[in-house]
Structures are given as C-alpha cells and as structure tokens.
Amino acid sequence: MKMESAQVIRTLERTAIPLGLLLLFVFTDHHAYGDGAVRAKQLTGLLANGEIPTSKYSMIGPLVSAPLWLAGRWFSAARSWLVHFNVVLFSLALLLLWTLLRDLVAEEIRRRFLLILIFGSMFGMHQTDYHGEVFTALFVAVGVAALVTGRNVLGATALVLGVANTPATMVGLGFVAAMLCWERRQLRYLALPVAAIAVYGLESWLFRGSLLASGYENAQGYATALPYSGRPGFSYPLFFGIVSILFSFGKGLVLYAPGLLLPVRDRLAREDGRALVMYRLWLAFLIGMILVYAKWFAWYGGDFWGPRFFLFASVPASFALAVRLAEEASSVRQGVVTLAVLGFAFWVGLSGVVFGQRGLELCRADNYALESFCWYVPEFSALFHPFVDRLSIDAQGSVMLVGTALVLALLGVPLLRRLARNAARELRSWRRRKSLRGPFRV
After folding, report:
1. Which spans in 28-106 are helix H?
2. Which residues lie below 8 Å from residue 392, measured CB to CB, with a gap of 6+?
3. Interatomic CA distance for residues 139 and 209, integer angstroms
4. CA nearest 256: which of 125, 348, 170, 318?
5. Rounded distance, CA 111 to CA 164, Å?
6. How many CB atoms lie within 10 A of CB 190?
7. Distance (Å, rounded) from C-alpha 269 to C-alpha 360?
8. Cα separation of 266 and 271, whole Å?
9. Cα–Cα distance for residue pair 49/335, rounded to 1 Å
10. Orientation angle between helical segments 2-27 and 85-100, nearest 10 degrees
11. Mean pLDDT of the region 69-84
12. What is the DSSP string of 392-439?
C-alpha cells in the first residue's frame, strides 16, 4: 500500500512539472517594461535596422533571445514572442537541472526542487518580464551544477555568460572559483572570472566604445528623507545594505527566499557528496552578490516586486526546501518549521504572479519620495499588502491560485502525515518516560 501511494505521488509530481510551466506560459501576463523594455527595443533596433545599442544594459541575454524574436517576426509578432523568452528559458533550464542532478540526489528531491521553483519561488513573477535577472540566475545555477557533475565546457560557458550579463555578480563568481580551486586543488578555475571579465570588456568595447565603460558612471538615486539617498554608485553603508537585503519586509531574502533558513547539510551528506558541494557553491555565489549589492545605492532593485537583483536566491532556497521535504526522520520541531517555510514559499510564488505590485502606487508618487515604504513597512510589502487592500483575483489569477493550492497540497499532505506520525511517536515516548519516573518523580 505504501509503495502504491509513493508511485501515485511520483506520477502526480512528474505530471505537475510540465503543467506548471504551461500555467506560467498561458495564465500569466508577459510584458517588457522598465529595463526590459529598453533591452527589447535595443534588440529590435539591432536586428531590424542594424542599430548598435549603446545603453548600460547588457546585450548578452537579449542576443541569446534573438532566435525567438526572429521566429516571431515570421508571424508579425516579434515583440509578443520576445516577452516570452524568460519563461522559455526557465523551462529549458529546469530540463537541464533535472538531467544534471540525476546522479547527485534522489528523484523525489529533483521533482520537488523543480515544483518549488515553479510554484514556490520568485521565478513565477520574474518570468513574466524581459529583465536580465532570469538569464543570469538560470545560467549560473546550471553552470555550477554542470561543473560539479563534470560537464566542464557547459558549466564554464554558462557561468561566464550568466555573470557577464550582470557584471555585479563577478565577486560571486570569484567566490565560486576560489571554492572550486580549494575543493579540487586546481587553479584552473581562476580562469572563470578572468573569462567573464574578458567577455564583459568585449561587450563594453563593441557597444559602448570602451573596455571600461559600464554605462553606470553617473547613476544615482532620488533624494528623499532617507539619510543616504540621492548618492551615486556604491555609496550605501555596507551594514545597512546587508540588513535591508536580508530582513526588510518588502525586499528581504528571509521572506522572499525562506528556504535559505533551512539546514540541509546532514541530509545532503547522505546523498552524493557533490550535491553538498553544489549547494555550497550556490550559497557562495549568493553571498558574493549580497556583499556587492549591499553597497549599491539602489540595492532594492528600483520599482520592482521583491528583491529584484536576488532572484538567484530562489535556487538554493528551493533546493534546500526540497531536500527537507525528503527528510523522513525529522523531529516534530523540524517538521513544523519545514511546513511553515513550504507554505510561505508558495505564498511568495502566488503573490508574485497574481498580485505583483498592485495597490502600491503610493510608493511611486512624487519622484519615489515614499518608495521606502515598500521596502520597510509591512503594510506596504508586496507580500502583505494584498491582505491590507483585500485585492481581488481575476480569472487568470484564479487558475494560478488553484494550481498552486493543488501542488502545495501534493507536497504538504505527505509532510503533514509524517509530522503527525512523529508527533504521536514523541508523545508516546514522553508518556513512557513519565511513567518510568513513577511516584518518586521530583
């Protein structure tokens, strides 16, 4: 009976992965705005008119999306095809991760990892636009997994392109390279950041006329009541940047990637040892990102839902949660924590695709004078504001709500049953110990 139940769950989880991707493709609105609109316009100008883009935004990701633009042009719908690039890229990356992780972890972890990325992470919201964070996050995630599993050419290529697409992640790649050198006692991995810098320099020279031109030389934020606002470049205090990136209500990784809080070292140590190495490399890359962006005046990612720059955090967070869901021998306390993290992670995914930043217009008014409300005030956090304003859900959102609820039940019900069994066992153990004390208990 138990084997039959496990087989049913396996089939349902496998089926839910492609259906989830289909839901994201069909029942979420895809568009290009802000930085994404600039990138789309640059690619269109380059392919349609031969115009050389000169803005600060990298063209590496958009150039990879060129086949989609060209295919869409045959149907006179190049832009509508182009804005689906990130969901297509997301689907292909999940297929690669499924394959690369085959020898590292049990299939149940792989299935749940992909399902959490689809329904319980920031990727649901991010795949709706044409910004560059999806490209970098997925290429780095795949690149690390490929290197760990011995696909060196694929791994190095993905890492270099992903990092060159977002130069601020160079420090994260440096941490990854240093850890690989230490783990494998080989200095050749130092070539990874060197190659990424070379690719970035080449792009800068081709599109901006200089190897050192980033396009961000004169970037600075709006001056508001905040004491460090209106300053340029990397002027934000490191301490306040780290605290805000981790713990702020509207941008904090503790809320938007709660799986990062889960300890998984012991379970991964029982899997293939390379799985633990991969997880540590992902965390090292994330730490490098945090240290760099904590100093950036716009650490919050501008007018965007959640911690825009830190989409990559969803990768190790979702992996850790999937690992914990596979832990049979967890205590009641561990089970309760895992269940709470699972539920909140799925709320993150659902709120992003259904509500986004709806109702937060106040944070954009008067040259963003009150934008910090969306960073620090709980009532104006994108995660909590739907309850404050009691936002409605349209037909598309209702489909996503039902899909998310079904997958949450698929992953959560077995955990609840296990939690109930463990609670009953611990209760019996407590009663047994109490009875053994007898009447002489002090």
Report:
1. 35-49, 60-64, 66-73, 78-82, 85-100
2. none
3. 26
4. 348
5. 30
6. 14
7. 44
8. 9
9. 58
10. 160
11. 91
12. ---HHHHHHHHHHHHHHHHHHHHHHHHHHHHHHHHHHHHHHHHHHHGG
CA-to-CA dists, residue 441 to 307, 428, 433, angstroms: 54, 18, 11
What's the rounded Cα separation, in Å, for the pair 250 and 357? Answer: 11
Residue type at position 183: E
Q: Are 85 and 130 in contact (CB under 8 A)?
A: yes
Q: What's the token pair of residue 108?
A: 């149940």
- pLDDT single digits (tens) 240-257: 999 999 999 999 999 999
pLDDT averaged over every residue in the chain: 93
Confidence of residue 419 (pLDDT cuts 50, 70, 90): confident
By 3-state DSSP, what share of the chain in percent is helix, strand and coil, each rounded to 5? 70, 0, 30
Per cent of the chain over pLDDT 90 is 78
Rounded Cα distance between 369 and 38, Å, is 24
Other CB atoms closer than 10 Å to residue 136's CB: what's the count? 27
In this predicted model, which residue has the larger pLDDT, 435 or 418?
418
Q: Dihedral, CA atoms, 81, 84, 88, 94, nearest 10 degrees?
A: 180
Amino acid type, 384: F
**Rounded distance, CA 281 to CA 287, Å?**
10
Question: Phi and psi dihedrals of 198, rounded to 5?
Answer: -65, -45
**pTM value?**
0.95
Give me the residues paired with residue 220 across strands: 232
d(CA 69, CA 267): 44
Domain spans of the chain, in order of start? 86-214+221-440
